[in-house]
Write a structure and sequence with these properties.
Layout: H1 2-22, E1 26-34, H2 37-50, E2 60-68, H3 73-84, E3 89-94, H4 105-113, E4 118-120, E5 137-139, H5 147-158, E6 162-168, H6 171-186, E7 190-197, H7 205-208, E8 218-222, H8 225-237, E9 246-249, H9 251-254, E10 264-268, H10 274-293, H11 323-334, E11 338-340, E12 343-347, E13 353-354, E14 358-363, E15 369-375, E16 396-398, E17 421-425, E18 433-436, E19 454-457, E20 460-463, H12 465-477, E21 481-485, E22 494-496, E23 503-505, H13 507-513, E24 519-525, H14 528-531, E25 535-536, E26 541-550, H15 567-590, H16 611-622, H17 635-664, H18 678-681, E27 689-690, H19 696-703, H20 708-715, H21 722-731, E28 736-740, H22 741-750, E29 754-770, H23 777-789, H24 792-801, H25 821-908, H26 921-925, E30 961-964, E31 967-970
Parallel strand pairs: 1-2, 1-3, 3-4, 4-5, 6-7, 6-8, 8-9, 9-10, 17-21, 17-24, 27-28
Antiparallel strand pairs: 10-14, 11-12, 12-13, 14-15, 15-16, 18-20, 19-20, 22-23, 24-29, 25-29, 26-28, 26-29, 30-31
Helix pairs in contact: 2-10, 3-4, 5-6, 10-11, 12-23, 15-16, 15-17, 19-20
Protein name: Glutamate [NMDA] receptor subunit 1
GO cellular component, one term: NMDA selective glutamate receptor complex
Organism: Batillaria attramentaria
């Protein structure tokens, strides 16, 4: 029983022990043969970081080992056997020796023999694409032969179908030729001629001489850097880098020190950044192990799970090779796809990287490399920002402004043409704008429009009306051109040289006649003198002559509103107002029918026409304001008032008319009226006018007999360029400048201080100049006519010359001016002065009114005090009279009472009559002291106040109270019983 019980326990312990053994992660060592210790450090960092990732945590643990690659291939192979294989490496990352760029061919051979995959990070030789020799080799960089794909894309983009292929007689040259032929056949691109040269030669003139005999003018060059320097030198000697040619060279050839102007070359982005490629190689290895070792989520790792790779070989001997596991790991590496530091990392069946990112560079006229395009898909680089892959997006992106051989910016036709055109021009805004070349060497047009162009003209950039026209003509006539500026900056005139009898043409016409240029593209006026020596095309623009002057701006003063009348008239008007007011007052004052003389008039003296009212009436009539009071009453004064009203009407109407003339039509004026102005015919010393020296305008004045006087006046002041003359007009040193109307209209539209004077005169046409009998005259003339018919010339006029819509200047002089604050400031100041005067006068009136009010108040107080004093005296007199009557009534009542008592005593009991006694004041006041109506002689106490009695007669004071008027005085009844009011 015990043994039976212990069997399951032992089995469980065995299972736990085996599971613990299987729970240990598999240790995978990645080897490397690198070029420097710095790269060894980055390799160590990259492998160590793999263990921090969660995908293979607890399943695979990565270790690293690395060696420095030796420049000796045999020693490098021995290092792999002695130092890498004993570490049981599963794969090897291979670079190149530090002292050279030799391919790691020994590492590939050694590891390939044991089927250990090798990931190259710098090998670009096409030999590594041979799977029969390098069966286990992959690389994170593409081979040189892959440049053929970029070349085909460029040719297709530029629409070139015929090329000449120059390549080296080695394996690399043959491989890229084979690759290009395969791809070009699909795009219908034909190789007209191939030139194979032997690497290492010191002269290739004989080989390159064959190019001149070919129809194609597009050369593709595959060469090493050293051979390319010789080829470029010999090609320049043979004039193969002039106009009409196009060169597209390989990466290594573009690295030469003497690459000519206009050559296109390729550059693999991050191609030489070994550090980034090491990280990408380690990432690819990790992705392969994830594909091999990470179990599906639905499956649990058990003890029966087998290692998919097993142990790699640990020495170079006759031990069994790692062919099955090595091939399995190689397949996993080749089929992996991961985003690395150099972009999307993918491999083809040969182990070569696909989808690399190339930069297309161009040598500009400043001998500098500039990027003009890119080829590739989703990349991470400093050149192009990260973008989402788009299968529909073309892998090639190229800029339109490319410098081609000869320094031209016009794309070569790709085939041989009869000749190239040398164009001479000169600065003549807006036809030819000349600006400094940007630091990047790429000329950009000032107008951001699709059909606007800018071309290099020596060290400058030329754009404008003529340059856009030249580009379209060259497209129609199929010629290339280079542009340069005239040497002396003159259009050209026929003059004597060195005070000799021989006359020669100078300026651009002189360069054309002397063969220094083939065409003049500038605002060149067609005239008989020039037409006798050169050919002109049909006019591309008709124009006339005009005069540019500076505007005369009238300054508006504060007294602008006073301009309609002279000072004398203003004084007389002001004097007339006061004289009429005085006469009106006198007439109405002394007239028998005035308000002062009418006896039965109900008007008071205040309604009469006093001097103030007469003044108000006179001003009111003049200023057309309503008169509500103070009008004259007499007939004589009213007649004068009507006459004054008529005078005021005439004065106001005249002022209004002249004010419109002085202010509403106040416009800046030109100094002259036109070509017939007397100041041009007979100028004063301080009036100067001129044109451009040795120009068609000067010839026009010289040829016209009626203008010969003007020519003599201008001859000594003519300027060498239109720009200098226009600036002199701005500065005031020149009063008038006579020149072509398009330029002057352009300047007047962009400078509000300038204007044109008069109508056009001397009408003519502008044409393109060519040599006498030139083969291009007819075709260029047809192209000009075609541009006219298509409306392109009108578009150029709107773009470069007719800029009135952009101008902020006022419109023509025919429109009335708008009055501003400067014109009417004096009126506002006059109103402000009236307001200030009114405010000051109101303070004076307030002070005067306050002074008068204080005096009236003092008189009122005195009158009130006197009235109160008289009232008090009267009140006391009335009170004394009332008291006197009361005493008399009391005495009569007392006497009557005494008599009655005596009579009663006599009749009743014959009692003796008491002697008479005067009643005391208390007895008297015990009754109603205000009147006898309430007197009760037999009552012993006084009646108190009853609220029901509203009259003062019902007031009954308490004992001891005495009422006098409205005052009640309380007394002690025991004191002074005989008190009486005196």
């Amino acid at each position: 029983m015990c043994s039976v019980k212990f069997v399951p326990i032992l089995a469980a312990l065995c299972m736990l022990t085996f599971a613990g053994v299987m729970a240990q992660p598999k240790v995978v060592t990645i080897g490397a043969s690198l070029s420097s210790e710095r790269h060894q450090f980055h390799f160590k960092t990259a492998v160590t970081d793999l263990n921090l990732r969660q995908q293979l945590a607890g399943i695979v643990e990565f270790n690293y080992t690395s060696i420095l690659m030796d420049g000796n291939p045999i020693r490098s192979a021995l290092d792999v056997c002695d130092r890498l294989l004993p570490e049981k490496v599963y794969t090897v990352v291979a670079s190149h020796p530090n002292s050279s760029m030799h391919a790691p061919i020994s590492v590939s051979y050694t590891c390939g023999f044991y089927h250990i995959p090798v990931v190259g990070v710098s090998a670009r030789d096409s030999a590594f694409s041979d799977v029969n020799v390098h069966s286990n080799f992959l690389r994170t960089v593409p081979p040189y032969s892959d440049q053929a794909e970029v070349w085909v894309a460029i040719l297709e983009h530029l629409n070139w179908k015929n090329v000449i292929f120059v390549y080296s007689a080695d394996e690399e040259g043959r491989k890229i030729l084979s690759q290009f032929q395969t791809l070009a056949e699909k795009e219908d691109i034909k190789i007209d001629h191939t030139i194979k040269y032997t690497p290492g030669e010191i002269n290739y003139t004989d080989s390159l001489q064959e190019i001149h005999a070919q129809e194609a003018r597009v050369i593709l060059l595959s060469a090493g850097t050293d051979d390319a320097e010789v080829l470029f030198h010999d090609g320049e000697v043979l004039r193969l880098f002039e106009e009409d040619f196009a060169w597209i060279v390989s990466e290594r050839a573009f690295a030469a020190a003497n690459v000519p102007v206009g050559v296109l070359g390729l550059h693999l982005v991050n191609g030489t950044d070994e550090e980034k490629h090491i990280y990408d190689a380690v990432d690819a290895i990790y992705a392969a192990f994830v594909a091999l070792y990470k179990p599906p989520s639905s499956r649990i790792t058990t003890a029966t799970a087998a290692d998919p790779l097993g142990e790699p070989p640990n020495q170079c001997n006759d031990s069994p090779r790692w062919d099955i596991s090595g091939n399995k790991l190689y397949t996993a590496l080749r089929t992996t796809s991961t985003m690395g530091r150099t972009g999307m990392l993918r491999f083809n069946v040969k182990g070569d990287r696909v989808g690399a990112f190339y930069e297309i560079n161009n040598i500009n006229t400043s001998k500098r490399q500039v990027a003009v395009g890119f080829f590739g898909g989703f990349q991470v680089s400093s050149v192009e920002p990260t973008t989402i892959p788009d299968d529909k997006k073309a892998p090639l992106r190229m800029a339109p402004n490319i410098t081609w051989p000869g320094g031209v910016t016009t794309k070569p036709k790709g085939i041989r043409i009869k000749r190239n055109i040398t164009v001479v021009t000169m600065k003549a805004i807006p036809f030819v704008n000349v600006e400094d070349m940007p630091p990047d060497g790429i000329c950009k047009p000032p107008l951001e429009q699709e059909d606007s162009h800018s071309f290099p003209c020596e060290v400058k950039c030329c754009s404008g009306y003529c340059m856009d026209m030249l580009y379209n003509i060259s497209e129609n006539c199929s010629f290339n051109f280079t542009v340069h500026l005239g040497q002396d900056g003159l259009f050209g005139s026929f003059e004597r040289r060195n005070n000799s009898d021989q006359k020669e043409w100078n300026g651009m016409i002189g360069e054309l006649i002397n063969g220094e240029a083939d065409m003049i593209v500038a605002p060149l006026t067609i005239n008989p003198e020039r037409a006798a020596n050169i050919d002109f095309t049909k006019p591309f623009k008709y124009q006339g002559l005009n005069i540019l002057v500076k505007k005369i701006q009238k300054d508006s003063s504060l007294g602008s509103f006073l301009q309609p009348f002279q000072d004398t008239l203003w004084i007389l008007v002001g004097l007339s107002v006061h004289v009429v007011a005085l006469v009106l007052y006198l007439l109405d004052r002394f007239s028998p029918f005035g308000r002062f003389k009418l006896a039965k008039s109900e008007d008071t003296e205040e309604d009469a026409l006093n001097l103030s009212s007469a003044m108000w009436f006179s001003w009111g009539v003049l200023l057309n304001s309503g008169i509500g009071e103070g009008t004259p009453r007499s007939f004589s004064a009213r007649v004068l008032g009507m006459v004054w009203a008529g005078f005021a009407m005439i004065i106001v109407a005249s002022y209004t008319a002249n004010l419109a003339a002085f202010l509403v039509l106040d416009r800046p004026e030109a100094r002259i009226s036109g070509i017939d102005d007397p100041r041009l015919r007979n100028p004063t010393e301080d009036f100067k006018y001129a044109t451009v020296k040795d120009s068609a305008v000067e010839m026009y004045f010289k040829r016209q007999v009626e203008l010969s006087t003007m020519y003599r006046n201008m001859e000594g002041t003519n300027y060498h360029s239109a720009e200098n003359a226009i600036q002199a007009v701005r500065d005031g040193g020149l009063q008038a400048f006579i020149w072509d109307s398009p330029r002057l209209e352009y300047e007047a539209a962009n400078d509000c201080d300038l204007t044109t004077a008069g109508d056009l005169f001397g009408r003519s046409g502008l044409g393109i100049g060519l040599k006498k009998g030139s083969m291009w005259t007819h075709s260029v003339s047809l192209a000009v006519l075609e541009l006219h018919e298509s409306g392109f010339m009108e578009k150029l006029d709107n773009r470069w010359i007719l800029v009135d819509s952009k101008s902020q200047c006022p419109e023509g002089n025919s429109a009335p001016a708008t009055l501003g604050l400067t014109n009417m400031a004096g009126v506002f100041m006059m109103v402000a002065g009236g307001i200030v005067a009114g405010v000051l006068l109101i303070f004076v009136e307030i002070a005067y009114k306050r002074h008068r009010g204080m005096k009236e108040k003092e008189l009122e107080l005195a009158r009130n005090a006197a009235d109160r004093w008289r009232g008090n005296i009267e009140k006391r007199r009335t009170l004394r009279q009332t008291l006197q009557k009361q005493r008399e009534e009391q005495m009569r009542a007392a006497n009557a009472l005494q008599a009655k008592k005596q009579e009663a005593n006599t009749e009743g009991n014959n009692m003796p009559t008491p002697p008479y006694r005067r009643p005391s004041l208390m007895e008297a006041t015990g009754s109603n002291a205000l009147g006898p109506a309430h007197f009760s002689p037999g009552h012993g106490s006084a009646t108190r106040y009853s609220p029901s009695h509203g009259s003062p007669t019902h007031f009954s004071p308490s004992p001891g109270a005495v009422r006098s008027g409205r005052t009640v005085t309380w007394h002690n009844p025991a004191h002074n019983p005989d008190f009486s009011v005196i």
